[in-house]
Write a structure and sequence with these properties.
With 379 residues, the chain is of the alpha/beta class. It has 16 helices and twelve strands. A seven-stranded parallel β-sheet has the order 4-3-2-1-5-6-7, with helices on both faces. It has a five-stranded mixed β-sheet with strand order 11-10-8-9-12, with helices on one face. Strand 6, helix 6 and strand 7 form a beta-alpha-beta unit. Helix 4 runs parallel beside helix 5. It is globular and about 55 Å long.
Length: 379
């Protein structure tokens, strides 16, 4: 049985990962679960999957659940707890499904411990791609993408020579407001933004989809995962979310990966790679879909995407600053403190003030993340 630990077990990707595990109880064993503050759901997961180790957001929450846990389960908390679940115990694979840059330290610890990574935390590669990929190569660790777009590209490249790749194209649904113009975005609400037309995701990533920040983060992640230049990475609007991404080769052939939008498919592929197992996902009928549509990306309509790509090309701490500013701005929007369009304005203002530093170490990355968050909170 493959032993798995999950960072972010109560979130969207975490719960769907456990759905996949539950479908194959003879093949997977849960070693550790790390959650935030949703202890009600965590306790349900503990009773069902019987991990040996769990972690929660704070020491207070850890004390609260300790008396209710079965004997023999180790309890941890905070960032140290994430690292313990990632690097401690006997897991062969760690699924990094926590949101935001908080996943960086624990992912690095898991790689250092020789765990293969099911990567759903794109901010890890956005903020410290050079550190993560270099360490993974040194430790012989696989970085298996869980995002549907990167899983698609990964599958399309299987068995192919990387030097034959001309370009990749990441598809984008366009999010909740894909048919809105800029004027119509001025008064949209949080509730409007959270109604994604295709995917079931957490609040933060759903907002990122609406601003197209999510696609910018995916471009940066693809740069590090596949060793491609930014000039080789394209973004295309595809409202149906059936083609999850595709690869064009130098002979002008294109290989695409298609399927109904169901995150359990890329999650399962990461867990079972290189094998393919039976999935509960609904089979795709192109006849029923009838038509697939595509539109060129409008960078004037989605300025945050252009900002993200520019930061990726600049390298250094620019991507860390972009990500940190976005995380704060999205949190402020979700709390009702700022309007929707202010998200991208805050990111832009932060980047205008940011002094980029090339090839940063972990200490500088963490310092940049912290100071940018303070600035974005004050704007």
């Amino acid at each position: 049985m493959k032993k798995i630990s999950i960072l972010g077990s109560t979130g969207s990707i975490g719960t769907q990962t456990l759905d996949v595990v539950a479908m194959h109880p003879e093949s997977f064993e849960i070693e550790g679960l790390a959650a935030g503050s949703n202890i009600t759901l965590l306790m349900e997961q503990v009773r069902r999957f019987k991990p040996r180790r769990v972690s929660v957001a704070t020491k207070e929450l850890a004390a609260e659940i300790s008396s209710s846990l079965p004997s023999g389960i180790e309890v941890f908390s905070g960032n140290e707890g994430l690292v313990e679940i990632a690097a401690g115990g006997d897991a062969e694979m760690v699924v990094t499904a926590v949101m935001g840059s908080v996943g960086l330290q624990s992912t690095l610890a898991a790689i250092e411990a020789g765990r293969h990574i099911g990567l759903a935390n794109k901010e890890t590669l956005v903020t410290a791609g050079h550190l993560v990929t270099e360490l993974a190569i040194r430790k012989g660790v696989k970085l298996l993408p869980v995002d549907s777009e990167h899983s698609a590209i990964f599958q399309c490249m299987n068995g192919e020579n990387r030097e034959d790749v001309a370009s990749i194209t990441i598809t984008a649904s366009g999010g909740s407001f894909r048919d809105y113009n800029r004027d119509q975005l001025k008064n949209v609400t949080v509730e409007d933004a959270l109604r994604h037309p295709n995917w079931s995701m957490g609040a933060k990533i759903t907002i990122d989809s609406a601003t197209m920040v999510n696609k910018g983060l995916e471009v940066i992640e693809a740069h590090w995962l596949f060793g491609l230049s930014y000039e080789q990475i394209n973004v295309l609007l595809h409202p149906e979310s059936i083609i999850h991404s595709y690869v064009e080769f130098r002979d002008c052939s294109i290989i695409a990966q298609l399927g109904n939008p169901d995150m359990r498919v890329p999650i399962q592929y990461a867990l079972t790679y290189p094998e393919r197992w039976k999935s509960p996902a609904q089979r795709l009928s192109l006849a029923e879909v009838g038509r697939l549509t595509f539109r060129e990306m409008d960078y004037e309509r989605y300025p945050a995407l252009r900002l993200a790509i520019d930061c990726g090309k600049a390298g250094g701490t620019a991507t860390t600053a972009f990500n940190a500013a976005n995380e704060i701005a999205v949190a402020r929007f979700l709390r009702g403190e700022i309007p929707f369009l202010r998200i991208e304005e805050i990111i832009s203002e932060v980047l205008q003030r940011h002094l980029n530093s090339g090839y940063p170490d972990l200490e500088l990355i963490e310092f940049t993340d912290r100071t940018v968050r303070e600035l974005a909170s004050s704007l």
